[in-house]
């Protein structure tokens, strides 16, 4: 389309996610400092050609005064971000409660202990109410900024109720929804009390996307079994309205990683690490400290490996970098102490006065340090119990051009479907099998490593984050054009 002067106007893409891609720090009554977080999703979406992007989301801080809100809104607009302000109680019930304590474990097949589930049942209703309320608040902000011709792309399990709210404002609004987590088997999904409301809302979108065909299949089958609707591999039909459902596997901005390896600060990190661990093989784990990542299983498998392979004592170390997340949720606090306890026990058992087999860090690393670690390590261990995709496995592959390290990857990560041929796939629940895979990886001949790496490297560098975002958005535009032409006929 063109403006009044005949100059082409770019279509706008409104990206709605729970959290904005910035962190905001208050510096005074009406002054804020912002830092844009860089990452796959941000780079991907900003790289989508032909669109002008706006972000809509929660700024991650509680701002209760009008002066602060107005100042932050203005500051955020410089970064093309639009805030949705949520108060502390809503954040507690919607984000910590319904999103992280109920939906997240449910979507990852992590059943709660029966007594915890019972406790959840009691607070379920108020948390679900807060979830709906939060989704309505997001919808109001989107609606306020929406203009005809814009495309709205909603992200993730926090905003399952958003498509329906948006269509209630305007049934012609172009709405896509993408889930970053797995969608579980309908047998699991159908135990969720709010199962129907959420499915109906998602179906209000014009295009629904998942990382893998398995998740697509599970979603379509949930719609068939829970709602009694007609489903095909392409989507779901509800009273004459067809919702397209498809797999859009995400990727990373691989060039950003490859380029970083040439930077002087990364090269000097690499040199330091090589000196520090010289004479030893190094295995790497990089995860958010979350129960879905299978961190205790990974560490126990390493213990089993050490038990069975005394020749390797003092010749191999495991570096586990775990960023604490959702520290307000008691389950996460329990996991932290559990991991510390296992690491302490194993280091006590296999350590010497001068060296320990496991280095465990409860912290995040900056991008350059992370790239250096990816580049120098011999093996990466990704042992998720469930994971929508898992980008750490992609990032590791991108940084391994010279070393051609081995990726040990859980078959329950979405990435197993794209990197399966190059990685060693494992069942993280089988500690014996994982220990054997560590031994296999450590002894793998160079030509096999090279072949496996090449396979995965080609995939990671061709199926990028930008391609993912472009495909989703263009499919969304196409889907709408198609359904509008069907309606006109
Ligand atoms: P996550 O569960 O966060 O994402 P993942 O895909 O592995 O999992 O992405 C994690 C990101 O955080 C990576 O970019 C990684 O570099 C970074 N990171 C992790 N640990 C770090 C550390 N200790 N220090 C610094 N950086 C660290 C969710 C889903 C995934 C899905 C993505 C994208 O759970 O399954 O792949 O969204 O859709």
From TrEMBL:
BP GO terms, sorted: trehalose biosynthetic process
Reaction equation(s) it catalyzes: D-glucose 6-phosphate + UDP-alpha-D-glucose = alpha,alpha-trehalose 6-phosphate + UDP + H(+)
EC identifiers of the protein: 2.4.1.15
Any GO CC annotation of this UniProt entry: cytosol
Keywords: Glycosyltransferase, Transferase
Molecular function GO labels: alpha,alpha-trehalose-phosphate synthase (UDP-forming) activity; trehalose-phosphatase activity
Enzyme class, UniProt record, top EC level: transferase
Family the UniProt entry places it in: In the C-terminal section; belongs to the trehalose phosphatase family. In the N-terminal section; belongs to the glycosyltransferase 20 family.
This protein's name: alpha,alpha-trehalose-phosphate synthase (UDP-forming)
Organism for this UniProt entry: Dillenia turbinata
Region of the whole protein represented: 92 to 580 of 925
